[in-house]
Write a structure and sequence with these properties.
Blueprint: E1 7-13, H1 16-29, H2 35-41, E2 49-54, E3 60-66, E4 69-75, E5 78-81, H3 83-88, E6 94-98, H4 103-106, E7 112-113, E8 137-142, E9 145-154, H5 158-163, E10 169-176, H6 199-202, H7 216-221, H8 243-246, H9 263-280, E11 288-289, H10 290-298, H11 318-327, E12 331-337, E13 340-346, H12 351-355, H13 367-372, E14 377-384, E15 401-403, H14 404-417, E16 428-429, H15 433-439, E17 445-446, H16 447-456, E18 459-466, E19 469-474, E20 480-487, E21 491-497, H17 506-517, E22 521-524, E23 533-537, H18 541-551, E24 559-560
Parallel strand pairs: 6-8, 20-24
Antiparallel strand pairs: 1-2, 2-3, 3-4, 4-5, 7-10, 8-9, 9-10, 11-13, 12-13, 14-15, 14-18, 16-17, 18-19, 20-21, 21-23, 22-23
Length: 570
Amino acid sequence: MFKKPVKIKTNTQSKATERKNFRETLLRKFPNFSESQLNELLPKKEPLNVLKVITHNDVIVNVYTVQKRPVIFEVEGKIFPTIFLLWKFPNLLYAFTTHQQVMSFITSGADLMLPGVVTPSLQTGLLKYGAISENDTVCINLTSNKAAVAVGVASQSSGAMSLQGSRGKCVNIYHFYGDSLCTLEGMSNPPLPNLGSPEWLQLKSFDENFPALGSPQKQASSSPMVSENDVITSEKNENEVSIRELEDVPGVATSKENDECSIEEMDNLLCYCFLGAIKYTKSLSLPVLTSNFFKLNMLPICPPNRNLDIKKTSYKKLKPFLKKMSDEGLVTVKEIKGGVEAITLINKEHPRIQEFYLDPKDRPKNDIDDKEDPQITDVVETYMITQNVLPIFEGHRKGDTIQASQIRQYVTKYVKDNNLQDETNNRLVRPRNVLATVCKTEHPVMWEEVIEKVCAAMKSCYKVKSGNEEILNKGKVSPITISVSVRSGNKKVTLIDNLELFGVRITEFAKECQHGVAASTSISRPPGKKYDQLLVQGNQVLFIYNLLTEKYKVPKKYVKGLENAPKKKK
């Protein structure tokens, strides 16, 4: 992103409120960041500047600097620490370790590939690729120095990396040592500090199957296959996956037990897991990515004494198997974007699904999923009793909340008890005492006007009940708004505001969007806003609207923005 020179559009010093929001954002984004460390990074008298930078490919980036040295940069609402911040606080992010020689490819614009990652051996008890999710912010360091040399996002989860057999992409790099971000505002490129090698490498606990780059043994056994886009530093066995990591993935073969199974038996096991998943998984929401369906729904169906290995079936891969199921009419599989397929429809009336039966004890356990699933969201508009109207609401205290329907009952009782109804016209009320103060007149007024004046003299608020939680928010109901914005490069993104007002856990909702539409997401706090905003790549208005109204049961009148959904092509 910063390989080529950038253009500084604006450079402003942040105000006190912006500085406070910035501190809160860092503490929320980086749980390992303590208050004392933040004070060390940003002393009270030290100004915080915000630079709006335009990259060579017209991406707008906000860069936060302290003493002209960048510490944080923000891309499309996602916060990243710079390598300078990580030099000061090296444990802020999970770090992938690589060889010094790989840096020449990274500085040329290449991403980090899995063959270029040095991993711990099994004896250390450490996970091979840590415990990260797709699109998590990570950094890269070297075997000789744990000081960060690059920052980016994980291209896939740790579990997916383990199943790749040390092939494929590991990190999409945004910023590296020596790029134009390092020399912003004319600052010189500082020398890389020597923080010592990573702790686990100091114990000589790296994988012995991963030799040092350029060793004679390596050169003799393989030919160079390094390109500008693929950093390949070793050739490990494609099927070599840590036994320790595979224990966390149910149903994946980790022993020689499957060697005794015939192809026909493995095909039957594959069909068994498939039919069990589509018939008995209660929490399955469509569309679902085929890869997620296999890992999260099919593998858990596999019997405890069996291990499903799709490579030992006649299909060899998941795609041809699902194509056959689609041809038979059990499911509908569509390509939602280049190379990414999803199951969009399940035909539960199909005879094969109808005939299939699983004993209740063998069915997928949905208890945990059901607990995590959002409950029906109920929104009740209420009013808070103030001192001005307190005499009207007998038996209540100042600050109590009351529904609009109950206000009419109390006002009617108060009018009748004090004989304030007009004797000649039942539609009129003669305000006296409290009502005269509220209505600001003693002349007869209509019943509806009295109710409106009483409501206006109270404070608006509303209760949101989601599952066992009840949230009281002051003010009028602010609906969930779904809008579409166009970023640089004519790329569309969907923005969702006010999710937290309705008890929606924004991080869980973001993951559902990632899995549902195969799009990246980010969470940020826009300037001047009280709540976080969710960004989803592409125009996903229809999916998000359906997710909120159908799964989260948010009333449709409190979800705005459906008109921004893409129009159907004629």
